Amino acid sequence: MALRLPGFLVIAALLGTTGAAAQETQPTPLQRRYQSTVDRIIALALSDSSAYQRLGELVDKFGHRLSGSESLERAITWVRDRMLEDKLDNVRIEPVMVPHWVRGKESAGLVEPRAAPLAMLGLGGSVGTPAGGITAEVLVVNSFDELHTMGDRARGKIVLFDYPFPTNVPAFVGYGRAVRYRVFGAIEASKAGAVASLIRSVASNSIRSPHTGVMRYDSLVTPVPAAALSVEDAMMLHRMQDRGEKIVVHLEMEAQTLPDAKSGNVMGEIQGSQQPNQVVVLGGHIDSWDVGQGAMDDAGGVVAAWEAVRLLKRLGLKPRRTVRVVGWTNEENGLRGGLAYRDAHQAEDHVLAIESDAGAFSPLGVGFEGTPEGLATITEIGAMLRAIGSDRVTPIAGEADISPLKEIGVPTMGLDTDDRRYFWYHHSQGDMLDKLDPAEVTRCAATMAVMAYVVADMETRLPRAGAGK
Amino acid sequence: MALRLPGFLVIAALLGTTGAAAQETQPTPLQRRYQSTVDRIIALALSDSSAYQRLGELVDKFGHRLSGSESLERAITWVRDRMLEDKLDNVRIEPVMVPHWVRGKESAGLVEPRAAPLAMLGLGGSVGTPAGGITAEVLVVNSFDELHTMGDRARGKIVLFDYPFPTNVPAFVGYGRAVRYRVFGAIEASKAGAVASLIRSVASNSIRSPHTGVMRYDSLVTPVPAAALSVEDAMMLHRMQDRGEKIVVHLEMEAQTLPDAKSGNVMGEIQGSQQPNQVVVLGGHIDSWDVGQGAMDDAGGVVAAWEAVRLLKRLGLKPRRTVRVVGWTNEENGLRGGLAYRDAHQAEDHVLAIESDAGAFSPLGVGFEGTPEGLATITEIGAMLRAIGSDRVTPIAGEADISPLKEIGVPTMGLDTDDRRYFWYHHSQGDMLDKLDPAEVTRCAATMAVMAYVVADMETRLPRAGAGK
Predict the structure, then answer these.
(1) To the nearest whole angstrom, how far is the Cα of B436 from the nearest Cα of chain A?
(2) Cα dihedral A224, A227, A231, A234 in deg (nearest 10)
(3) How many whole angstroms separate alpha carbon B5 and alpha carbon B397?
(4) Per the residue annotation, which of A252, A331, A380, A399 is the catalytic one?
(5) Rounded to 5 degrees, what are φ and ψ at A272?
(6) Backbone angles phi, psi at A95, to 5 degrees
(7) Under 8 Å between Cβ of B195 and B253
(8) If A425 and its partner were Cys, which of A7, A431, B9, B16 is the partner (CB 3.0–4.6 Å)?
(9) Which residues of chain B lie closer than 8 angstroms to A119, CB-CB?
(10) Residues 6 or more apart from A17 whose CB is under 8 A from it?
(11) Is B70's Cβ below 8 Å from some Cβ in A?
């Protein structure tokens, strides 16, 4: 659940305090020092599509990678082995215990006003239905507010939250509004006496493709099964209710949560030549939901970060500080990887944490959170990326896996990309390799390589931020 | 399988012979006679969304409507009953025997290099697999030409035709090129010794949504099962082959063709006040594939044509000739409805046949095939639709159900719409009501109403075309 800025704030930021450096025609000392190296990094990145080839191998070989699954652990081991072949330093898997939710068989079917299957996906973390399923009348509401006006009408029913994904705002802003129903729907439905909770999939386009994602329970409220219908099915049920028809649905889910499973954060690095204990960490999350290939979310982010480090290695660049690539585990349903990474690396001094988890689409630039001086420096570095169009710098970095580091004062950076189609595929069967483009993944890798390298090598370290939220 | 013109030919047609009338600033006598009536039709159409309401009832109440299914017959009866309530003349269902193909259970799964389900839909008319299914190695080819260079390599294998939908040409031109693999793939695969035929879905966008559609066998070639994979799955298998991996797929299909079933063309009319035996027929097809709701393909066309006649009825307009709306049956896998209609109505004199089967999206105008004089008249009528943007007239009308009438010399007309998203949803689970827009369906109805009314009422009858292909 990343937070991003509306476009007008981005524009204001560029025109305002942070825009000065980006608009300079005279290079700054930092730019004079690094522009030729930046150009070499970009040139090497654009010379082949090795990142995309590796991404394709990863997702085709292992498919999706839910926490607790064998495919996740096999993928992590494969990444480690390839990192060893890349001759990165200190390649390792650091153990992390992760939640182990399994979907099992599941289905939803319309019983009245006519029998028909519904396109659905259970939500991650949901309990199952009793054996044989639940058959109940459906109450469709637009929002929590509407449910709260219903008094006893939801009692014994299945509540369907039909909240449309707002498409008149930036993609992640729309997501932030709609995803509340996925996360909190089961709690609110149960409080109202419902026996199950359905949502309209949190998606900005649909070809009857349901979208899963994490949901929560409140320990003081009876847990009820929770699933997403496709946008089309949710709209159909809403129309039926508007016509005064009685709607009955049969829901059957075997979902259950097993004891925590073994997993790990996989990582490798280029050790710093002068301050090896100062670290620029960059990565994405290696786990995914159990649908599609988790290519966009987030194998592409892991591979772009990994490729960034490989680019530095191939160019023989040895930055002053350590540059480390990490594939964090369990971002999707626990954040255990990001938390474990922070706890395991307290003794180190993290200079910057970078993540790509908004899809390795055409990169627009980066979001940065740190001090104003740090933002000015990042804006200077960003300006050197103008040749590949990823020179925009904004003051928001909302990525999840690096948020535990942000909490202890580490400056953080998210890769900003053209996310217009992100929620077409997010957490759906459609998240497969073809949704990403080789040239775009390459430019993501180049952008992360430049940011990581310059910050790791420049004489003055990036200032620490105050400990944040 | 409609044929449409590339854009440059459309532009040439507008600037050339047929463009003169459309560019007139002085109204022609025909336009002086009819413009105010046209404006009344448009105004009434735009005054409510009754067409969309009725369309929603139809598709939500009955769902998809494959030939031979109970849902198709119930939908046909419902349309007849509503037409009686509308007090149309001569409301009836004319019996038609239709092919009865049933899908049964089906699945495809990757066996090697790893086990994973594949998103698939069997193709309409396919035979099933033997009980227990077929497990065989997969050979991926780009085209028939590539298959023909393979010698014996397809023997005993499953052939996958991975032909991408061309997206750099108009939608129906791209469809025409790609659909050959759906229609003829099983014949070519079988000739090469394959045990089954798979295609990349014929679709211009995908969220792992497979697309079905009709396929053919050649009585001299062993029939093999045929199915479509989602675009994503076809691309994944192709990548695996490119990496030199052995691909094994398990395919299981219960598909079978049962004896022909009873169905019918449903129709109603406004009887002509002076030449009732001269008929302007307009409609769409009431059958659909057995996925989604068949809302775009083609309940929307049926309802737009029906609403067109209702608009004339509500305005109390009584044209000189008969205006008849028909919901043809079995367009998708047999064209039996269109053929039976022609055969049953030999005694009548059809002045014009209109169909909407490219999706009731924003109407751009009409395609017309008849004589040059007829085209000039239609262009004059088209110009009166400028207020709702559907004034374009092109010289191609490729709709299927009216093609049997075209063969006997009846001028034909297809409604042209903004079809850019048509093949996102076509023959997939995604073809549900929300893909159409109330205001757009309304403008489709208005366009058809104007064309039907003026042609049915004008003093001079539209000239017959020569008997065509």
Answers:
(1) 12
(2) -40
(3) 9
(4) A331
(5) -65, 140
(6) -65, 140
(7) no
(8) A431
(9) 429
(10) A372, A375, A376
(11) no
Per DSSP (E only), the strands in A8-133 are 89-102, 106-112, 116-118, 120-122
Best mutation target, A232, A233, A289, A427, to test chain B (most B CBs within 10 A)? A232
Task: Write down the ipTM of this complex.
Answer: 0.93
Let me know the angle formed at the C-alpha of B87 by B75 and B309, rounded to the nearest 5 degrees: 75
Residue to test with chain A: of B208, B240, B431, B436, most A Cβ within 10 A: B208
Best of A208, A229, A434 to disrupt the B interface (most B CBs within 10 Å) is A208
* Total Cβ atoms within 10 A of residue B466: 7
Q: What is the DSSP letter of A27?
A: P
> CB distance A434–B208 less than 8 Å?
no
Closest to B198 in 3D by CA, of B260, B272, B268, B119:
B119
What residues of A are in contact with residue B292 (Cβ under 8 Å)? 208, 232
Q: How many CB pairs under 8 A join A and B?
A: 84
> Quick one: pLDDT at residue A466?
73
Compute the CA torsion angle A236, A238, A241, A242 (nearest 10 deg).
Answer: -100
3-class state of residue B392 by DSSP? strand
Confidence band for A467, pLDDT divided at 50, 70 and 90: low
- Give residue A116's identity as a one-letter amino acid code: A
Q: Mind giving me the DSSP string for B441-467?
A: HHHHHHHHHHHHHHHHHSSSPPPPPPP
Distance from C-alpha of A354 to C-alpha of A283, rounded to nearest angstrom? 6
Q: What is the pLDDT of residues A360-403, one digit of tens each?
A: 999 999 999 999 999 999 999 999 999 999 999 999 998 999 99
**Would you say B225 and B255 are in contact if contact means Cβ atoms under 8 Å apart?**
yes
Tokens of residue A432, six digits: 């497969």
Q: How far apart are CA A203 and CA A426, in angstroms?
A: 7
Give the closest residue to A388 by CA, choosing from A330, A320, A440: A440
Q: Within A208-276, where are the H helices?
A: 231-242
Q: Catalytic: B348? A: no
Summarised one tens digit per residue, pLDDT across range A270-293 is: 999 999 999 999 999 999 999 999
B120-122 vs B226-229, strand pairing mode: antiparallel
Q: Chain A within 8 Å of B437 (Cβ-Cβ)?
A: no
Using alpha carbons, select from B300, B295, B311, B279 the residue that is nearest to residue B411. Answer: B279
Structure tokens given for B125: 């008319």
Q: How deeply is A36 buried, as exposed, middle or buried, from its count of CB atoms within 10 A (0-12, 13-18, 19+)? A: exposed
Nearest CA to A252 out of A120, A108, A121, A117 is that of A108
